[in-house]
Amino acid sequence: MPKQIESNSLEKPKLRGFLHQYAFFFFFPLEIWLMTLAEGQTEVVVTLIYCLGLSSLLATSALYHRINWADKQRERMRKLDHTMIFVQIATSYTPFGVLAFSGLKNQIVLSILWISVVVGFMINMIWGAAPKWVSALLYVSVGWTVVVMFPEFYQYTGSTIFYLMLFGGISYTIGAMFYAAKRPDLKPGIFGYHELFHSFVILGAGLHYASIYMLITSV
Predict the structure, then answer these.
(1) Which of 39, 108, 165, 171 fits 204 for a cystine, CB–CB 3.0-4.6 Å?
(2) At what angle do helices 18-37 and 193-218 cross, to 10 degrees?
(3) Residues 68-87: what's their mean pLDDT?
(4) Cα 155 from Cα 159, distance rounded (Å)
(5) C-alpha distances in Å from residue 40, one per residue of 45, 103, 209
(6) CA–CA dist 15, 79 (Å, integer)
(7) pLDDT (tens digit, 9 = 90+) per residue, 141-198?
(8) Phi, then psi, of 187 in degrees rounded to 5
(9) Average pLDDT for the chain
(10) At what angle do helices 193-218 and 71-95 cross, to 10 degrees?
């Protein structure tokens, strides 16, 4: 077992997990600040849901990638890490789905995103060794479900929020493409394709945080 743990350690670039660890501590005070800006029970609840989703994604990713887990624990953490991506997608749209939009189309999108959390969890449990391109395709497909709400974003929340959400989604997608392709390794052993993926996740999270901040302060 020690040999296996050592092997896992050697395979990881030195910065594996550090980006999401630092991002967690960067976003955490911003999330607390965002919570103080929320007014009314509904606004507080959906803001909390969003903040928990973002923190859970970053914390789980940092723990999974930074610690050299034993095989069984590593597999469990990997499944949890991958499931958190679906959680983050759903929680990022929830403030808009509850506070900004109404109607059947919005309800369908919101339902699909939250159902995808359960489906994503089941897929990870059943097909834990899915190829990276399959996982990336699932994340991107679920995330871009909200494209059907783009007219509402532009009309009801304004162009700034619309473009923040759009470019945030594009950033996540670019990151997923690096993850699926498993390249480029910009600095092997230090900063690989996975770190590039994490970088674009952080950028996407920042853009979406800005859009939700604007939503909360304008409602």
Answers:
(1) 171
(2) 0
(3) 93
(4) 8
(5) 9, 22, 20
(6) 21
(7) 999 999 999 999 999 999 999 999 999 999 999 999 999 999 998 898 899 999 999 9
(8) -140, 90
(9) 92
(10) 30
Rg (CA), the chain: 18
Contact 151, 209 (CB under 8 A): no
- The strand pairing partners of 187, in sequence order, are 191
Cα–Cα distance for residue pair 55/124, rounded to 1 Å: 20
**How does DSSP assign 149-190, residue by residue?**
GHHHIIIII-HHHHHHHHHHHHHHHHHHHHHHHT---SBTTT
Phi-psi category of 183—alpha, beta or left, where left has phi over 0 and alpha has psi -120 to 50?
Answer: beta
Q: For residue 169, give every residue at least 6 positions away whose Cβ sits within 8 Å of its Cβ, in sequence order, or none.
A: 143, 144, 146, 204
Residue pLDDT, tens place only, 87-122: 999 999 999 999 999 999 999 999 999 999 999 999
Q: Is residue 131 within 8 Å of 138, Cβ to Cβ? A: no
Which phi-psi region, left, alpha or beta, contains residue 68 (left: φ > 0; alpha: ψ -120 to 50)? beta
What is the reported pTM?
A: 0.91
Question: What ranges make up the beta strands (E) of the chain?
Answer: none
